[in-house]
Amino acid sequence: MKMSEMLQIALDLAGLEAMPEDSGVVYDNGKDIQKVLAGIDMSAAELMIAKQLGFDCVAQHHPNGIVNKDSAMLLARDHTKKMIECGVPCNVAQKLAYARVDQMHKGMHGRNMANMSSVAKLLDINDLALHTPADILAERYTQKVMDQLMEDKPGCTCQDVIDQLMTIREYQGAYDTQKPEIWVGNKDSYAGKIYVVMYGVGAPNVEEYNAMADAGIGTFVTMHATKEVIEGVKKHNKANLIIAGHMSSDSLGFNQILDAWEAKGVEIVRINGII
User: What InterPro entries does the record point to (predicted)?
Assistant: First the structure.
């Protein structure tokens, strides 16, 4: 299978027309791909291992090595869209999301963008990254599970949310110290309207979370959260915050793409964070 075909499968699954700025080709030598070494976080070391073990391609979830692409605008667009979906007025959503563009752009300015691509080219081994497409799939799957919970049990609690998350294989398989947890609220807190937040380049900041809470969201289910977010959501005292888990949530989305490649005859070996 050609890399272009593999990327198109990911786009089709995620319902996207074009590859987002945080995903795509790291290095493509144009050769057919039959054996892929896949991981959540990959580096030059994994490229060398893949080459030595006879793999045709490395597939990574986190975009280490997407050259000459700035994902700051992708974050702003996606976060604006998601806040509007929650009922935040469009003007408020836009201002909150786009306020992060300059800071994020400056944060990327000093990064070594050619790290993975230069090594992949030297070794002549294919390398690709799929961040937003996989995160969309994880969010969609988890939101569907949460929607069913709200339909079946209108007065559900945060503990019910945890119990539902634990029906999903990737969360079951997480390390004991990384299973879903309630970080704001408690097991008896009413969940209210549950909103899953997993794609958008990075997680919402405090202002975004609180704007969505003001618009009626009762419980957020997300991959991870900073101390500032936890304290800010807690102080706002309107919503619960449930951390599903980072590696497990990434795995939930990425596995759907890897499974689709396998169904087309590509051999996949999963390492480095994939559950």
Answer: DUF34/NIF3_sf (IPR036069)
What residue numbers bound the domain in which 120 lies? 3-84+91-131+250-270
Please indicate, yes or no, if residue 275 is contained in any of the structural domains.
no
pLDDT tens-digit map of 107-162: 777 777 778 999 999 999 999 999 999 999 999 999 999 999 999 999 999 999 99
pLDDT digits over 215-231, tens only? 999 999 999 999 999 99
- Averaged pLDDT for residues 161-184: 97
**What's this model's pTM, rounded to 2 decimal places?**
0.94
Instruction: Supply the CATH number for residue 157's domain.
Output: 3.40.1390
Are 180 and 117 within one domain?
no
What is the token pair recorded at 184?
């704001």
Nearest to 221 by CA among 148, 151, 143: 143
> Does 71 map to a domain?
yes
Which pairs count as long-range contacts for 12-15, CB under 8 Å and 24+ apart, including other chains? 13/133, 13/137, 13/256, 13/257, 13/260, 14/132, 14/133, 14/134, 14/136, 14/137, 15/136
* Alpha carbon of residue 126 to chain centroid: 22
Cα(56)–Cα(54) distance, rounded to whole angstroms?
7
